[in-house]
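Problem 3 from the worked examples.
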Amino acid sequence: MNAASSLKNVPPDAPDRAPAAGLPPLPVIGGLTPFSSVDWPGQLAAVVFIAGCPWRCHYCHNPHLQARERHLHWTQVMAFLQSRRTLLDAVVFSGGEPLSEPRLPELIAAVRALGFKAGLHTAGIYPARLAAVLPMLDWVGLDIKTTASRYDTLTGRRGSATPVANCLDQLLQSDCAFECRTTWHPDWLPEPELLELAQDLKQRGVKHFALQAYRSAPGSPATVFPSDATKHALAASFTCFTYR
């Protein structure tokens, strides 16, 4: 989900209070989507975008969220969520990379206290931070961007495949529901390698996999498509396969 136009219908509010001495800085909220039926399969959710991501994936749909720049106060987010109790099922923390936010555990606890389920979109950059919040989460969408050998080229960072593998291991060993998903374009992941990636995920125990078509801009139509044979092979590999 793209964060553009995410401030519509969000009530104005006073800025967050400054943190007490010794606490992490105020949360850096990049935006809010008030309603989504696609960011957590089967749930009606609000999406809170955390600003900040250390990776520089060239196909990123939210490049304006790579820098740690606040566009919305947490008090505004909470006021909106208070008004949507019983109307929404869940809150998904997305980004950017939501695990870049030091106060994410507090934010998750706050939305759970309102009665919402808590979900997370992550690229798997911060395994220790995932471990800290995993017991608080009901669902995770883990980006598996490409094969291990291609990760560094895609993300612009060395050794970027290692933390992703660690995060996947944590999810496989947990009771938390999760989905692995790959945004696909043949320029960075030819179909034979996509199938190899899928087989690796299957062998590791992944049950839910989504293939997301690359789009040059959020909401624009896809221009390249995997073959029917590839989609059939992927569907046969997982308990639940989705092509978006």
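Problem 4, a separate protein:
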Amino acid sequence: MMKEVLLNNPRLNVLVSVLIRLIILVVGLFGNGLVVLAVWKKRTLRTTTNLLLLNLAISDLTTQVFCTLMFIPEFTTLGHRPWSDIFCILFVSTNVPLTTTFVSILTLTVLAVERYHAVVKPMRSEIRLREDTVKYACLAVWLAGIILALPLYIFGRYDEESGRCLHGWKDGVFGYQSYRIFLAVIIVLLPFLIISFCYGQILHDLYFKNKVGPQNIALQQETREKRKLFKISMTVTGVFALFLFPYAIFNGLRDDTGNLWSRVARLVFFSQSGFNPLIYSFQSTNFRQAFKEIFVCRAC
């Protein structure tokens, strides 16, 4: 019933989409802005894990802003202007949100590997990230995300007839469909295999592995802290995957990205970037305390 109403009333369809998008934007900017502010103001939060979560928050903020710009063609046409292709490629297409999605997936992969080294291989400190080296890992993640998305920018163009941003490369050995398959392997399958292996090993080590020797209070406290970080990392990754796969099915494996279900899947996926701050609030005492301090400071 609702589907028929939306299909028969394009204006209502656009208004509902914009309203939902604005709500997601406000929630996402507010929540991820809090994460950035908390890590910036509170030095004790600047651990390796939290700095990777900060990188994820910055990626989410970028996603939120550029996803909102994607609705500009719903209200006006770019027309045949010298800057139409550039404006389309950078601002009103999915190019930037997809780039930041690649960054988010790679960040979650680095986070899983870092937690694996911290929990399963704690004695091999030489392969672990530190507070002074994690920034290079974040920079590498952004560079990798941009490089993987380069074909979207190189072959993107504005189609005046349809009023949509399209990718103007022909299919073939190096065509768009081949690029999609490449991304499915490099940016979805491979990272989630790595993540699954890392968290599987961590789960076994923290909950099922028999500990040799007496467990003193300090060691028990350390184990509890590791379990908390594991739960946060797993929840963030699980929510991301839950929202990603419907989008990948409806948009990554099909050409008809303008139909209702594709648009719903895209909207739902890009809304996940507003959930992470809620996860931190519920599962991390340190983040929850930092958020409270920010509000108390603003109220003074």
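Solution to problem 4. The chain is about 75% helix and 5% strand. The beta strands are 156-159, 164-167.
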